[in-house]
């Protein structure tokens, strides 16, 4: 009857990579906090709309060179939360999902009309709280800067090299320490490796394995592919993966389903 | 006219700490993927409901010792997506937010009734896709395991020490490499430091600063507090913060708004 359970450390956050590529995101407030949010969002290819009476000069410049979906240099209005919605929420709920055209409408609403996230970066706490409630009524994910209790999610310090991203969080205890850990611990370690090359090599290997070397969608094929992928990733050191090029990866793939003899790639 | 803009590397994800403490989260599918999702969710104190015909023995055990909100050992039904909702979506949209009782209803719906996240971990792709569309119609955030195009968010490899969490992502290119970077780079570096003590020290300092040493909610006070907090965090090395105890932090706070003379804490 005795069973060993995983050791769960509660009290953490759920760390997730949010997919906002080509999705609308609303930033209310165009000061320095708004700018920092927008920079994060642009790295993730979101379609960003900024609404703010005062707009930071960098945000204005982003607007001029069309990096943003829209810059509305005016006071916020509650209807801005549904700026791109073309179907009413009531009609959306009425759609019969057994009809293919309903699925298209739902998809279009989700991918092209609603705000995936709403970021409120203004000093007017009364207005901010009103926006919060309206977001909750509409089912929109929202973050109020400096109001941790009114946030569905927090931002952290992120180290980035190509496709590699490392986020450091202290669950709100010390954002400044996150920043220092990034600059003095993570950065020196990963800057000294050509780690984005390792990521590209392994991404290439995985794609080619799925598309050409061992294609198929049944669960046995998937399991075989994943198993070899795990083994081959572990077969070389991280440093080896950093130093390889596409030719080396091709040589490794040729030996599938075997693992290479040591020394075959160098 | 020339203006230097931040260097934006597009093609990334938006990395966020999601707040699911005491929020309902639905996991559909109780196999090994479902279990791994549940473990992540329990670390973040979510109220987890699992619906699955087959339930992994560990999940069953979690259910028995009441670590989960509910384990429904049966086939999924579409109405499960609204299992805890007490107000209809139509009525929710009709609420007049100028009335205080409406705000309570919206808050209760958001915090206690709707699923903050829905995680689909089943092999039946047709059913999974139907669940996806229904989630989108209801405005629920959803992740379909192994279907990156049908996900609002992805999971990554997470290193955890107390309140410190570090997530490593390669934007889907090589989850296995994330795992190795965690085990062979991040873990040795941070395990050798008493880093969770540093986080606790800085969290204590920040709370005490706000509550006792320099309280107040006006923007000038906030700015002064943040400025000193930044300076004091940078004044000592990361290793110093790891080695201090609460008495040392108290000594530092006594000198506010000055910075300590070097050598005062050791």
Structure description:
The structure is a homodimer of 266-residue chains. With 266 residues, the first copy, chain A, is of the alpha/beta class. The first copy, chain A, has three domains: 24-155, Rossmann fold (3-Layer(aba) Sandwich); 157-192; 195-254. Chain A has helices at residues 32-43, 57-64, 89-94, 100-113, 125-138, 175-191, 195-213, 219-235, 238-243, 246-254, and strands at 14-18, 24-30, 47-55, 70-72, 115-120, 142-144, 153-155, 157-161, 164-169. In chain A, the strands form two sheets. The first copy, chain A, has a five-stranded parallel sheet with strand order 4-3-2-5-6, sandwiched between helices. In chain A, strands 8-9 form a two-stranded antiparallel ribbon. In chain A, α1 (32-43) links the parallel β2 (24-30) and β3. At the A-B interface, β1, α1, α2, α3 and α4 of A face β1, α1, α2, α3 and α4 of B.
Helix-strand makeup class of chain A: alpha/beta
Oligomer: homodimer
Most extensive interface between two protein chains, with residue counts = A-B, 98 and 98 residues
Strand content of chain A: 15-25%
Uncertain ranges of chain A: none
**Topology-level CATH name of the largest domain in chain A:** Rossmann fold
| N-to-C order of helices and strands of chain A | EEHEHEHHEHEEEEHHHHH
EC number (chains A, B): 1.3.1.76
InterPro entries (chains A, B): Met8-like, Met8_C, NAD(P)-bd_dom_sf, Sirohaem_synthase_central
Pfam families (chains A, B): NAD_binding_7, Sirohm_synth_C, Sirohm_synth_M
Pathway (chains A, B): Porphyrin-containing compound metabolism; siroheme biosynthesis; sirohydrochlorin from precorrin-2: step 1/1
């Amino acid at each position: 009857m005795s069973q060993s359970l995983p050791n769960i450390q509660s009290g953490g956050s759920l760390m997730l990579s949010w997919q906002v590529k080509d999705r609308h995101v609303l930033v209310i407030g165009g000061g320095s906090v708004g700018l920092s949010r927008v920079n994060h969002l642009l790295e993730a290819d979101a379609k960003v709309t900024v609404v703010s009476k005062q707009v930071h000069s960098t945000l204005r410049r982003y607007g001029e060179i069309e990096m943003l979906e829209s810059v509305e240099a005016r006071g916020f209005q509650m209807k801005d939360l549904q700026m791109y919605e073309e179907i009413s929420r009531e009609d959306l709920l009425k759609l019969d999902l057994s009809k293919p055209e309903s699925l298209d409408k739902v998809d279009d609403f989700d991918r092209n009309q609603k705000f995936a996230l709403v970021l409120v970066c203004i000093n007017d706490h009364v207005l901010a709280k009103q926006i919060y409630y309206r977001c909750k009524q509409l089912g929109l994910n929202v973050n109020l800067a400096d109001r941790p209790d009114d946030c569905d999610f927090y931002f952290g310090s992120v180290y980035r090299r190509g496709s590699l991203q490392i986020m450091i969080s202290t669950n709100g205890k010390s954002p400044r320490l996150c920043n220092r850990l990034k600059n003095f611990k993570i950065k020196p370690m990963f800057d000294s490796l050509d780690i984005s090359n390792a990521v590209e090599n392994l991404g290439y290997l995985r794609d080619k394995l799925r598309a050409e070397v061992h294609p198929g969608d049944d669960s046995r094929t998937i399991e075989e592919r994943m198993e070899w992928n795990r083994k081959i990733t572990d077969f070389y050191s991280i440093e080896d993966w950093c130093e390889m090029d596409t030719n080396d990866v091709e040589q490794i793939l040729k030996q599938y389903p075997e693992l290479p003899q040591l020394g075959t790639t160098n």
